[in-house]
């Protein structure tokens, strides 16, 4: 499942679109924004440094924490 | 920001183009548009092109008609004289309205909540999409 994220679409005077994707990185970002390609001809598709950042690790769930051996 | 894309809008849906035309005709007070006809354009209106939609010059208050012709692959091209500033302006407004309608429809189909940011004329400048 795709993680929560946002996309801002800005429309210029000619009716063309700039799309900025935020809050999602790596292949998930490409997957989540693939539908934008159906809006017309892609003139630029640029991954920023944030694209390559590793998503923050989820906190581990401790199972049976209380009364454990340690 | 993790990615950005520049997209050149392509008009492919007759239904959405009809909606966009209606929106712009109302907003700009242009009266009406027509469907399926020939338009005369070029030097002394010497060229005739079949179009799917047309806004007549009497409504545009422009030098010539503004038409939207549909190609065999379903994409629409805009037929307007290069020197017709009024026609060019309305053509841009229609293209922009179409782009907003198409993006809104596709975003909602993808499960995004869509929040438009509009200017004082009611034109959408930006769409903020959020998926949870």
Descriptive report:
The complex is a heterodimer of chains A (70) and B (132). By secondary structure, chain A is mainly β. Chain A is built from 1 helix and 3 strands. Chain A is 11% helix and 30% strand. The two termini of chain A are 35 Å apart. Chain B has 132 residues and is of the alpha+beta class. Chain B has 3 helices and 7 strands; from the N terminus they run E-H-E-E-H-E-E-H-E-E. In chain B, the strands form 2 sheets. Chain B has a 4-stranded antiparallel β-sheet. Chain B has a two-stranded antiparallel ribbon with strand order 6-7. Chain B starts with a strand and ends with a strand. Chains A and B meet through strand 1, strand 2, helix 1 and strand 3 of A and strand 1, helix 3 and strand 7 of B.
Order of helices and strands of chain B: EHEEHEEHEE
User: What is the CA-atom radius of gyration of chain A, in angstroms?
Assistant: 19 Å
As an assembly, this protein is heterodimer
Are there runs of chain A of 5+ residues with pLDDT below 50, and where?
none
The largest β sheet of chain B comes out as:
4 strands, antiparallel
Blueprint (SSEs and pairs):
The complex is a heterodimer of chains A (70) and B (132).
Chain A: E1 5-11, E2 17-22, H1 26-33, E3 40-47
Antiparallel strand pairs in A: 1-2
Chain B: E1 3-9, H1 14-27, E2 34-41, E3 47-55, H2 57-60, E4 66-70, E5 76-79, H3 85-109, E6 113-118, E7 124-131
Antiparallel strand pairs in B: 2-3, 3-4, 4-5, 6-7
Helix pairs in contact in B: 1-3
What's the gist of this structure?
Chain A has 70 residues and is mainly β.
Record keyword descriptors for this entry.
A: 70 residues; two-stranded antiparallel sheet; B: 132 residues; alpha+beta; two-stranded antiparallel ribbon; 33% helix; elongated
């Amino acid at each position: 499942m795709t993680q929560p994220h946002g996309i801002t679409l800005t429309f210029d005077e000619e009716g063309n679109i700039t799309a900025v994707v935020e809050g999602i990185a790596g292949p998930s970002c490409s997957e989540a924004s693939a539908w934008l390609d159906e809006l017309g001809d892609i003139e630029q598709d640029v991954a920023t440094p944030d694209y390559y950042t590793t998503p923050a690790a989820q906190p581990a769930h401790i199972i049976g924490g209380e009364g454990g051996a340690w | 920001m993790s990615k950005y894309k520049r997209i050149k809008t392509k008009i492919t849906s007759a239904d959405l183009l009809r909606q966009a035309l209606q929106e712009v005709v109302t907003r700009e007070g242009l009266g009406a548009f027509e469907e399926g006809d020939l338009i005369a354009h070029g030097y002394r209106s010497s060229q005739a092109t079949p179009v799917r939609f047309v806004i007549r010059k009497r409504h545009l208050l422009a030098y010539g008609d503004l038409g939207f012709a549909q190609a065999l692959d379903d994409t629409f091209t805009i037929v307007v004289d290069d020197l017709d500033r009024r026609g060019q302006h309305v053509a841009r407004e229609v293209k922009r309205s179409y782009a907003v309608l198409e993006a809104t429809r596709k975003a909602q189909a993808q499960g995004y909540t869509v929040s438009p940011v509009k200017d004082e004329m009611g034109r959408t400048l930006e769409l903020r999409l959020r998926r949870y």
